[in-house]
Amino acid sequence: MSIDEGTAAKVAKLARIKVEPEELPHLAAEFNNILGFIEQLGEVDVDGVEPMVSVTPMRLKRRTDGVTDGGMQERILSNAPDAREGFFAVPKVVE
């Protein structure tokens, strides 16, 4: 795939980047270089290679996923202008 100056101008417009007309050939060349690098990556054989999280073998830290109420209901409701029965009380909006 090759990027011409027209396509480079369109990409710059979509990215909301102001590019002077004399800079378009250089921008198109840069886009073509980037696409060349991507094509090189596509040629790498990765069959049998497991995805990694890091370059060093380690497991991610995990925590138990427990549901709690936070234990701060009274503190939170103390900030409310009106609280009833353990909930925020708000004025009726729809009749």
UniProtKB/TrEMBL annotation:
<protein>
    <recommendedName>
        <fullName>Aspartyl/glutamyl-tRNA(Asn/Gln) amidotransferase subunit C</fullName>
        <ecNumber>6.3.5.-</ecNumber>
    </recommendedName>
</protein>
<dbReference type="GO" id="GO:0006412">
    <property type="term" value="P:translation"/>
</dbReference>
<keyword id="KW-0547">Nucleotide-binding</keyword>
<keyword id="KW-0067">ATP-binding</keyword>
<keyword id="KW-0648">Protein biosynthesis</keyword>
<comment type="similarity">
    <text>Belongs to the GatC family.</text>
</comment>
<comment type="subunit">
    <text>Heterotrimer of A, B and C subunits.</text>
</comment>
<dbReference type="InterPro" id="IPR003837">
    <property type="entry name" value="GatC"/>
</dbReference>
<keyword id="KW-0436">Ligase</keyword>
<dbReference type="GO" id="GO:0006450">
    <property type="term" value="P:regulation of translational fidelity"/>
</dbReference>
<comment type="function">
    <text>Allows the formation of correctly charged Asn-tRNA(Asn) or Gln-tRNA(Gln) through the transamidation of misacylated Asp-tRNA(Asn) or Glu-tRNA(Gln) in organisms which lack either or both of asparaginyl-tRNA or glutaminyl-tRNA synthetases. The reaction takes place in the presence of glutamine and ATP through an activated phospho-Asp-tRNA(Asn) or phospho-Glu-tRNA(Gln).</text>
</comment>
<dbReference type="GO" id="GO:0070681">
    <property type="term" value="P:glutaminyl-tRNAGln biosynthesis via transamidation"/>
</dbReference>
<dbReference type="Pfam" id="PF02686">
    <property type="entry name" value="GatC"/>
</dbReference>
<dbReference type="InterPro" id="IPR036113">
    <property type="entry name" value="Asp/Glu-ADT_sf_sub_c"/>
</dbReference>
<dbReference type="GO" id="GO:0050567">
    <property type="term" value="F:glutaminyl-tRNA synthase (glutamine-hydrolyzing) activity"/>
</dbReference>
<dbReference type="GO" id="GO:0005524">
    <property type="term" value="F:ATP binding"/>
</dbReference>
